[in-house]
Design goal:
Layout: E1 2-8, E2 11-16, E3 26-35, H1 38-44, E4 55-56, E5 60-66, E6 74-77, E7 80-81, H2 87-90, E8 101-102, E9 115-119, E10 123-125, H3 132-135, H4 138-154, E11 163-167, H5 171-182, E12 187-191, H6 195-204, E13 208-210, E14 223-228, H7 233-242, E15 243-251, H8 263-268, E16 272-275, H9 281-293, E17 302-306, H10 310-318, E18 326-330
Helix pairs in contact: 4-5, 4-9
Bound molecules: zinc ion (2 copies).
């Protein structure tokens, strides 16, 4: 099969690779579309010790089952493989599974290829006539869905009454804006330093878009909910400054690990600071249904490109010169 293989830092090679052979409980998937994630980009730069070459990256996938009892079924792939037996899994918090593994990370090959093997229980049936390119966006949108669910649970006020601030308008940040809007929130501000991303967020209709460099900073102590989809020292500082007393900060991005937190304010103003990681199967299924129903808009921010041209797609994303919040690679 053809695959786009991460062969060296900043090098992706489109070449022939052996077709994966499914093990017991797994299905072979013919990949229809696979999105490029920020974590794939991180690996591409050689900054992820859990993703080392040679490796097929990619974990945001839709496709069709080949062979077995579900032959021909169109599916969206939940790429997070969990054990089903640890405490977290038994508690319905499978995203926190002690033995979790994600595809596109060593030792498990990812989806920038014509075929992928996947445990059958990770496959979500795709609604009829759903666009496979849109379906591939389910993974980042499920991450946003879960983050908004966490914020909703922690917030003293109903989301529809909240003022919300979203930091970062990449695929996850933009989806957070759309999911908050779907939840009835009408006071959403979303910031990104990239002008193309700001333009895309404006068109997608996920809130009042601002430039963190050129525009005035978000109102201090002004927001019930702040969702940080960047996760850097600077954005953490912005998040804490903007949170209302008693407000909630949800941290999704993980750009760096240290700094930015005003512990004094967090303590004296009872700010909830909550980390989130991926999604549960419940979030994932709800996301697929919401995407399919049109509840999250027309998804014009998802762009399809041929898998063979994946390397240039990585370069365009890295240089910030594409208006697409998500580029999805489509095998021939
Ligand atoms: Zn991803
Ligand atoms: Zn588990």
């Amino acid at each position: 099969m053809k695959a786009l293989v991460y062969t060296n830092p900043t090098e992706l090679t489109y070449r022939d690779e052996p077709e994966p052979v499914p093990e017991v409980g797994e299905a072979l998937i013919k990949v229809d579309a696979a999105g490029i994630c920020g974590s794939d980009m991180h690996a591409f730069h050689g900054h992820d010790e859990r993703r080392y070459p040679p490796l097929i990256l990619g974990h945001e996938v839709s496709g069709v089952i080949v062979g077995g009892s579900r032959d021909g079924e169109a599916v969206v792939v939940n790429p997070l493989m969990t054990c089903g037996t640890c405490d977290a899994c038994l508690d319905g918090r499978s995203n926190l599974c002690a033995n979790r593994q994600i595809i596109g990370m060593n030792p498990r090959e990812g989806a920038f290829a014509q075929y992928l093997r996947m445990p059958e229980r990770n496959l979500v049936s795709m609604p009829q006539r759903m666009n496979p390119v849109h379906a591939a966006a389910a993974e980042p949108v499920a991450t946003a869905w879960h983050a908004v669910a966490v914020a909703t649970r922690a917030s003293a006020r109903p989301v529809a009454e909240c003022k919300a601030l979203v930091l970062g308008a990449g695929a996850v940040g933009l989806a957070v804006g759309l999911v908050l809007h779907l939840g009835g929130c009408r006071k959403i501000r979303i910031g990104d330093t990239n002008e193309f991303r700001r333009a895309t967020a404006k068109v997608a209709g996920c809130g009042d878009v601002y430039d963190p460099i050129g525009d005035p900073a978000p109102e201090p102590n002004g927001y019930d909910i702040v969702i940080d989809a960047v996760g850097g020292k600077v954005t953490r500082g912005v998040a804490v400054a903007a949170a209302k007393p008693g407000g909630v900060i949800v941290h999704i991005g993980l750009m760096d690990n240290d700094g930015g937190l005003d512990i004094r304010k967090i303590t004296l103003q009872e700010i909830s600071f909550i980390g989130t990681y991926t999604y549960t199967m419940v979030d994932f299924r709800a996301t697929v249904a919401a995407l399919h129903s049109g509840a999250l808009g027309d998804l014009a921010w998802v762009e399809a490109r041929p898998l063979a041209e994946g390397h240039s797609a990585f370069l365009d994303l890295d240089a910030g010169r594409t208006p697409a919040a998500k580029i999805v690679l489509v095998p021939d």
